[in-house]
User: Fold this.
Amino acid sequence: MIRADSFRYAGLEVDDHSLRGHYELDGRHFVEVVTFENAGPLRRPALVAVAQLWYLLAGLSYYKAGAAMRIDLGDTPVGPRARALFDAALHEGLGEFAYRNGLILDDVEVTGGTDAVSYAPTIEPSRVLIPFGGGIDSVVTVQGLAHLDRALFIMSPASGRFAPLEATAAVAQLDIVRASRQLDPQILRGDDNFFNGHVPVTAMVTLLAALAALSTGRGAVAMSNEHSASAPNLRWRDRDVNHQWSKSWAAEVLLSDALSERVGPEFVVASYLRDRSELWVAQQFARARDYHGVFRSCNRAFSQRPGSRATKWCGTCDKCLFINLILAPFIARDELRRIFLGEPIADPRLDETLRSLVGLGLQHKPFECVGDPDESAVALRSVSQLASWREVTRLAELARLTSPDRDFEELLEPQGPSRVPAHWLR
Assistant:
């Protein structure tokens, strides 16, 4: 396919309850609409400033359709830190997209943008908004911050709410601030001339959560991104390619810096799980028994099209296999079978995927939100030694081939840096 010539930021509209971002790709117009529920009025200067950051990153969902050679930011206010965030989102956040499409984005020329103004909104540091996806990560964050004033932030497509997410949120019994995202129908419908691929959607959601938090006077957004989110899937053309870039430590720092530039350093965006392994998260989730019957991490439950949404764990995707594996050391086999309505890690048809998860596959780690190979290998070793799983001899055979750099106990200890404020910790 031929790359487009130019992509232009054509304007952002903000009213009390919604955002409308306008973009043009070689003259073709796109608009994305985000509508909020239970948020405060959005047309205050500090909130508009944060909406402008979202607008910058949301444009990448439309830029990717043509992978244009030139980007014109128009009259969008952009400070130095916002430019750094945008540049990283373009090159790192679209890394998987570029890899899959064989594109080099280093030659993209970015022009335009105006000076940014800083604001100092009134916020309460102890009031925290938690983006909630219905999986084990955000549940553990909700549980861990129980001593703070918490509320959930839930994103839904315009096509309707996700049933398993809503069921899991109901267990938390917390107030919910909502946002629904209406992608331009042209993107949803697709076009033979469009490039397709992954965009840094979590970074976009983080900024919408920041907007929702500020609109209700909350002083923080608590993300649920683990240490291993920073681990790349592969290296291509002297650049790391990371499916989870927008959940990484680097992205967290860039997002925080850009927000600080617009609304001051008192407002906090940090991941509660940043220095924790997936194994530690699974251990904590195993204790949250009220959620075991309702949570869902299978991506097939979260299709944009309601008719395509799976009503149970599919049991065959990368995410189902990984979550089943990481929970198996901590949840009894019979209970785990009831949760998943099956046993993905015991399914020989998934052996090649399991090998990829533990670092033995012919391919790189799956392009999915899964842990690094060490975490998967250590979980596999632990499971293979449990009496209840011993009959599945393939697990022990595969475990013997792995050589993780860290052991089980090590992965239950803090991993790397964290920006979590002291008052989040009990």
Notes: The CA atoms of residues 272 and 422 lie 11 Å apart.
